[in-house]
Hints:
It is a multi-pass membrane protein. Helix content is 77%, strand content 0%.
Amino acid sequence: FELTVNVSPSLSTVMGYMGTFRFSWLTLGADLWAFVQYVLSGCYLWAALVLALLLLASVALQFFSWVWLRADPADLHKSQPSGRCLALLHLLQLGYLYRCVKGLQQGLLAWRQEAPSEFELAYADFFSLDITMLRLFETFLETTPQLTLVLAIVLQSGQAEHYQWVGICTSFLGISWALLDYHRALRTCLPSKPLLGLRSSVIYFLWNLLLLWPRVLVVALFSALFPHYVALHFLGLWLVLLLWVWLQGTDFMPGHCSEWLYRATVATILYFSWFNVAEGRTRGRATIHLVFLLSDSCLLVATWVTHRSSLPSGILIQMLLSAGASSFLLGLVLRLVYYRWLHPSCRWEPDQVDGSRDLLSLEWCLPPQNRRMTQLARNFFPKAKDDTVSSGKGEMNGVL
Length: 400
């Protein structure tokens, strides 16, 4: 029993790394392949947009990684390089790769040991949670805009090359995987929350995929029909979402300037999908966000219908809108099914939350814990905080 408890967290960490590596390299390879093909075919504007999105996401990721390393306790990372070496790694855009290699090394080290210490298990999870967060940022700063760009190019030209199909498929899978991995990581931060099972994970993956596809489709269609106004549309909605995030009083980053970068990143995520940043019940804010995006999509549809009936390539908009609407309705049904019958909280016994599993999770979570992801988990799962207080244990998380 002790061996199973100790090895399982490190094994799940290693498996999570492998999934993250797989989708990260696939999407990066597809983007570089598209960039080379655009250059060879003389489409320099498309190539420049692909490269700009890659560089923008990479710079943002390196900044987040560097700020988090500086904010971590000085005695936490004992075997890492000096501050100047780390700064040079992040300046060369290698900081994220360093985190992945270091985290995978720590996870394998804990997995190979017969009885790894609590510190080694918690330290491996510490790296895993940071990588999950960085991967989510990369997904919506680079992968999702790249997917929108590729779809707009395909819709405008009326044909799709092999490298474009590869980019579309890997992007959709990578985005849904990043959302699923992030949600699973949040649940590991709170002892009172059970992990997702296989069936729940599949449904969660599918409804995110089906709800994301219509949003990306409407933005791609708008880009194909009105390429000169898509930047204005994004900027207008992004400013509104940034104001909404600021009004919720986020306090995630260690500094004021870095906090605004975090808010700007969250606003970009909200342009495509839901992301919670504040404490309290999430159902109301999630509903407001869903209605807001749906209203914006309907306005875009009305703009297309009143101006054109077909794309420059001859593809009928009615066919694409029917497919998008069907995908949205199916994704909404799966989301309701998930939260009604497949959500882990629906099958979790209240006495078990206050029982042996809670104490066991507390026991191995006492070493270094990722405060950043724990804070987001408390925001996303408000009941966890209430359960902790009502059980008489006080605060269990956030202890270093």
